[in-house]
Design a protein that fits this description.
Distance between the termini: 43 Å
Structural class: alpha+beta
Helix content: 25-40%
Radius of gyration: 22 Å
Number of strands: 15
């Protein structure tokens, strides 16, 4: 279909099976993989300007197209990562992966414009994301297929890779590792630079803690994005160092400022006692460094722990941003101890059973997953556009602005219409400092 001004035409679609024989088996998933909330689709667009490396990128024939190259490379990567070519099934009351070698869904498409004509798909996008993401395979529940991919070629030689994956099989780092394996084959490498490790049994499996099903209240959230320059981030990092003697990351600064701006926008200080009402920020920390070393390298399953900071609304709203950064850092410092306590069954309530309420902000970091380093032979992506939003979660995604712009991009769906103007003002004021 495509938009009226910039049509996109899907030219072919089919399953891509592993290029050689793979084990036929049914694999158990870890207790984290099986968290009910992870059985959802993760969508993203990866925008490539089409600049070839000086040596041709190791792609072999000069006449090859991005779609043809990625299709062939995907088949090779599915040999190493054969569970991605399988299907999710229910056995003995739990979700597992049946390694059937049926394949991943692959769509080829063409856009009747150049990337420049659509601003390289910067926000606001001039082509609907639905046109650049693959339509589901017929006769298959999308939640049963680990991976779908669409490659849309533009008249300028650039292309967009639209990915849809099911979070159950891999976390962000794992998905990024798989995509880089496809990229390695696309550039002509004989094997991926990182060998995959399944090893879901290395994830602790503490006794199941009783928990009521999460209450999913649908929220009428609005989209807003803002870019923070390296200078603005560096100023906060410098002030944090002066105040505490410690260091913080750009992610810490982005989380702290977004949490503070949102808390101020929600107006929780109005009325008696509301300044002490707790507000929460939650993000998901990688825990591979807490696994046995032999399994950590190459492990692509879900391997994270929910880190939560809670403070009174008044404290977050009125504090200097350095103090909000301190709250984020304090929460991160508890990671190893909390993960070990969870692994030994030391919690009364399962920390992976999250509570979704409007006073909670969930933050996802897309800057260090490996997607920005994936090179299929035409250079790394100009930018990556994630769509990690759900109508019951107030979400902020930390990403990167389109190259060559530096800094951080904060993409949010975290406030309702009535709170949007103040939230925009708060975030823009920080960005303009």
């Amino acid at each position: 279909m495509g938009s009226i001004g910039f049509p996109v035409t899907r030219t072919s679609s089919s399953l891509v099976a592993p290029s050689s024989a793979t084990p036929r088996e049914t694999l158990r998933l870890s207790v984290i993989d099986r968290v009910a909330g992870l059985r959802h689709l993760v969508r993203s667009l990866h925008v490539f300007d089409g600049r070839a490396d000086a040596d041709g990128g190791g792609r072999g024939e000069e006449t090859t197209t991005p779609a043809r190259t990625l299709r062939e490379a995907l088949g090779k990567a599915l040999v190493d990562y054969h569970p991605f070519a399988g299907r999710f099934v229910e056995e003995d009351g739990e979700v597992r992966v049946a390694c059937t070698a049926e394949g991943a869904w692959f769509v080829e498409a063409a856009a009747a414009c150049s990337l420049e004509e659509v601003k390289h798909l910067d926000h606001p996008m001039l082509i609907p994301k639905e046109d650049l993401l693959p339509e589901p395979a017929p006769g298959v529940d999308p939640l049963d297929m680990p991976l779908m991919m669409q490659v849309t070629e533009f008249t300028c030689g650039g292309f967009v890779v639209g990915l849809i994956s099911v979070h159950t099989i891999a976390d962000g780092l794992g998905a990024g590792q798989f995509i880089n394996a496809v990229a390695d084959y696309a550039r002509g490498l004989p094997k991926p630079r990182v060998s995959p490790v399944w090893a879901r049994d290395v994830i602790p499996d503490p006794p199941k803690m009783p928990a009521p099903p999460p209450r999913l209240e649908l929220l009428d959230l609005r989209y807003f994005t803002v870019d923070l320059t390296p200078d603005h981030i560096a100023k906060v990092k410098s002030r944090f160092l002066e105040a505490t003697g410690g260091r913080c990351s750009a992610f810490d600064v982005c989380v702290a400022k977004t949490w503070q701006a949102r808390t101020r926008a929600l107006g929780l200080l109005d009325g008696d006692g509301d300044g002490d009402r707790p507000v929460h920020v939650c993000f998901f920390a990688n825990t591979r460094h807490l696994l046995p070393a032999a399994a950590a390298a190459g492990f692509y399953g879900n391997c994270f722990y929910p880190v939560q900071a809670t403070r009174g609304a008044g404290e977050v709203a009125r504090a200097d941003v350095v103090e909000v950064v301190r709250a984020v850092r304090d929460a991160k410092a508890r990671l190893a101890g909390d993960f070990a306590r969870w692994a030994s069954g030391g919690f009364d309530r399962d920390p992976y059973e999250l509570t979704f309420t409007y006073d909670s902000l969930f933050v996802s970091d897309w800057t260090r997953l490996g997607f920005l380093e994936a090179d299929y032979g035409w250079g790394t992506p100009a930018h990556v556009v994630p769509f990690s939003y759900h109508p019951f979660m107030a979400v902020a995604v930390i990403g990167a602005p389109p190259a060559p712009k530096a800094g951080a991009r904060v993409m949010t769906m975290c406030v309702e219409e009535r709170h949007l103007p103040e939230f925009q003002d708060q975030m823009n004021a920080f960005a303009d400092q």
